[in-house]
Design goal:
Blueprint (H helix, E strand, L loop, with lengths): L7 H5 L3 H24 L5 H6 L5 H23 L2 H14 L3 H26 L3 H8 L3 H32 L3 H17 L3 H26 L4 H9 L6 H12 L3 H11 L8 H31 L9 H41 L6 H22 L3 H12 L2 H15 L11 H29 L1
Helix pairs in contact: 4-10, 4-13, 4-14, 4-15, 5-12, 5-14, 5-15, 6-11, 6-12, 6-13, 6-14, 6-18, 6-19, 7-8, 7-18, 8-9, 8-15, 8-16, 8-17, 9-15, 9-16, 10-14, 10-15, 13-15, 14-15, 15-16, 17-19, 18-19
Length: about 450
C-alpha cells in the first residue's frame, strides 16, 4: 500500500530549512500588507484637527476640548448684538419682573437643545443630511434658508462689531466691522482651524461673562427683588418670553453646537450622555450671561437713572461705571459680535457642505462667507439696527421646519439613530415646544411684512 502522509518538504521538493525560510517571508509579507491597510484607514476627525496621531488619553482630552468649544460656540452665537439689545430693552420695560421671563425661556431652550443635540449627535448626521434622508431635497431647502438667514444675520453681527470697537476705541464703525471680519477670517485660515475655533469662542465667552459680572456688581442691583420675581413675577409677558426663545435658539443658532460635535467626531449612542450634558450647559452659559446683563442694567434702572434712545445698554454701563463702563460695554459688544460672526459663518457653511467635505475646503468656504458678509455690510451703508431687524425676522423662519425634521427622526426613523430607542418623554417635550416655534415663525413673517411696509 502507498503511504499518503507526506510532509511539506516532500510535496514541494524543498528541504525543511527552505520551508521555514519561505514561511518567514510569507509572515513578513502579511505584516506589510496589514500595515498598508491600516495606513489607508480613515483618519478620525480629532486627529485631522490636531494634525497628529493621538493615544486614548490625548483623544479624551481633545474630545473634552471639542465639547467645551461646541457648547461655547452655541452660547456665544446666541449672545450677539441682538441679544444685548433685547436684554436692555426688556429690562427697562419690565424691571425686576424680567427675571421670570429669562428663567422660563431657559427651560424651553433646554428642551429644544436637548432634542437637537441628541438626534444629530446620535445619528452622526447634520440637520440637512437628516432632512434629505427623511425627504430628498428637504435638507437642501433647509440649508438654503439657514445660509440666507446666516448671511443676513452675519451682516448685522459685523455691524455690531463695528459699533463695539467704536465704543471701545472710538474707531469708525465701518472700519471696526472690517477689522472684526478679518479677525474671524484669521481663525479659519489657521492650520488647526477646529482647535482655534474652540479656543477663541471659549475665551470670548469667559471675557463677556467676567466683564458683565463686574458691571453687575458695580451697579448694585436689587438681587433679592429679582429672585423674588423669578417665582412670583409682578408682570408676565408671553411676547417677551417667546422673543427671548427665538433670539436664543432661532435660526442657525439652534444647530451651531450640534454640528460642531459632529465635525469633531463625538457621535453615536456611546457619547449620548456627554452630548446631552453639553447641550444643557450651553443654554446655562447663555442664561448666566443674560441674567448678569439683566442685573447690570437693573441696578442702573433701580437707582433712578433714565434710559432712553436706541443704545440703552451702553447708557446703562456708562451710568454704572462712568467712562470705564462705556469702554467695557464696547468690549462686550465687540466680543459678542465677533463670536457671532464666527458662529454664523461656521454653521451656515456646515449646511452647505457634507460630512465628506475636507476640513480645509470647509474652512476656505467659511472665509469666503465672512468676506461676503463684510463686503455687503460695507457697501450697503444702512443703519445697523435695520440689519439686525431683518436678520432676526429671517432667522425666526428656520426653527419650526428644521426642528420638525429632527422630531420626525426621533419619533419615526429609529434606523437613522442606529437603532437607538429615543426617550418618549423627550420627544413629547420637544413636540410641545415645536408648536410654540410655529407661533414664533408666524410672528417673524409679520415682522418682515411690517419692515417692508
Amino acid at each position: 500500500m502507498f503511504n499518503n502522509h507526506y510532509t511539506d518538504s516532500e510535496v514541494t521538493g524543498a528541504t525543511p530549512v527552505a520551508g521555514r525560510r519561505r514561511r518567514r517571508r510569507a509572515g513578513r509579507n502579511r505584516e506589510t500588507q496589514e500595515g498598508s491597510m491600516s495606513s489607508s484607514a480613515p483618519v478620525p476627525p480629532a486627529e485631522k484637527e490636531t494634525g497628529s496621531a493621538l493615544g486614548p488619553a490625548a483623544m479624551r482630552a481633545v474630545n473634552r476640548s471639542a465639547l467645551l468649544g461646541a457648547l461655547f460656540l452655541m452660547a456665544t452665537s446666541a449672545i450677539g448684538p441682538g441679544f444685548i439689545t433685547q436684554t436692555a430693552n426688556f429690562t427697562v420695560q419690565l424691571g425686576a419682573a424680567f427675571a421670570f421671563a429669562i428663567v422660563v425661556s431657559i427651560v424651553v431652550d433646554i428642551a429644544v437643545q436637548l432634542n437637537v443635540w441628541r438626534v444629530i449627535g446620535v445619528s452622526g448626521l447634520k440637520a440637512h443630511e437628516l432632512g434629505n434622508r427623511v425627504l430628498p431635497g428637504l435638507g437642501w431647502f433647509i440649508a438654503a434658508l439657514v445660509a440666507t438667514g446666516g448671511l443676513v444675520f452675519n451682516i448685522g453681527n459685523t455691524a455690531g462689531g463695528g459699533l463695539g470697537l467704536n465704543a471701545l476705541l472710538g474707531l469708525d464703525a465701518t472700519w471696526g466691522g472690517i477689522l472684526t471680519a478679518l479677525l474671524a477670517v484669521g481663525v479659519f485660515l489657521s492650520r488647526r482651524a477646529g482647535v482655534a475655533l474652540d479656543r477663541i469662542v471659549v475665551a470670548l465667552g469667559v471675557v463677556m461673562i467676567l466683564v458683565t459680572g463686574y458691571v453687575a456688581v458695580v451697579s448694585q442691583p436689587p438681587v433679592g427683588e429679582a429672585l423674588r420675581n423669578v417665582v412670583l413675577p409682578e408682570e408676565v409677558s408671553f411676547l417677551v418670553v417667546t422673543t427671548l426663545i427665538g433670539g436664543t435658539v432661532g435660526g442657525y443658532i439652534t444647530y451651531a453646537g450640534a454640528h460642531r460635535v459632529v465635525d469633531a467626531g463625538i457621535t453615536g449612542v456611546e457619547n449620548v450622555k456627554q452630548i446631552s450634558r453639553s447641550s444643557v450647559v450651553s443654554i446655562v452659559v447663555t442664561g448666566v450671561m443674560r441674567f448678569l446683563l439683566f442685573l447690570a442694567i437693573l441696578g442702573v434702572v433701580a437707582g433712578g437713572a433714565q434710559l432712553a434712545g436706541e443704545n440703552l445698554a451702553a447708557q446703562a454701563f456708562q451710568s454704572a461705571a462712568g467712562e470705564v463702563g462705556l469702554r467695557l460695554f464696547g468690549v462686550i459688544l465687540w466680543a459678542a459680535s465677533v463670536s457671532s460672526v464666527i458662529g454664523a459663518a461656521y454653521t451656515s457653511v456646515s449646511f452647505l457642505t457634507t460630512s465628506r467635505t475636507a476640513p480645509r475646503t470647509r474652512s476656505l468656504l467659511t472665509v469666503a462667507f465672512i468676506l461676503i458678509s463684510a463686503a455687503v455690510f460695507t457697501l450697503l451703508g444702512q443703519a445697523p439696527s435695520t440689519l439686525l431687524i431683518v436678520a432676526g425676522a429671517v432667522n425666526g423662519l428656520i426653527l419650526p421646519l428644521g426642528f420638525a425634521v429632527l422630531l420626525w427622526v426621533a419619533w419615526r426613523r429609529r434606523d437613522l439613530l442606529g437603532g437607538y430607542e429615543y426617550p418618549t418623554w423627550l420627544a413629547v417635550l420637544g413636540t410641545l415646544v415645536w408648536l410654540l416655534t410655529i407661533w414664533l415663525g408666524v410672528q417673524s413673517l409679520s415682522g418682515i411684512a411690517a419692515l417692508w411696509a
